[in-house]
Amino acid sequence: MPTIREISGPYRLFFFSFDCSEPKHVHVQRERKVCKYWMEAWNEHCGVNR
Predict the structure, then answer these.
(1) What is the rounded CA–CA span in Å between residue 34 and residue 30?
(2) Do the Cβ atoms of 3 and 13 come closer than 8 Å?
(3) What are 3-14's pLDDT values in tens digits?
(4) 5 CA to centre of own chain
(5) Which of 45, 46, 28 is nearest to 37 (CA)?
(6) pTM of the model
(7) 3-class secondary structure per residue, 7-18
(8) From residue 36, how far is each of 15, 39 by CA, in Å?
(9) Greatest CA separation found in the chain?
């Protein structure tokens, strides 16, 4: 699974290239805890229009 390495700190950001059944999202991990952030919701929150 690809990892996004540009982020400093205790968090690991990664994605799966085969998560086809879900909207685009990024997994965020710290120690044994993992959550997902969906890119569409993030774009709306940041004011990005596509």
Answers:
(1) 7
(2) yes
(3) 677 677 888 888
(4) 12
(5) 28
(6) 0.61
(7) CCCCCEEECCCC
(8) 9, 9
(9) 34
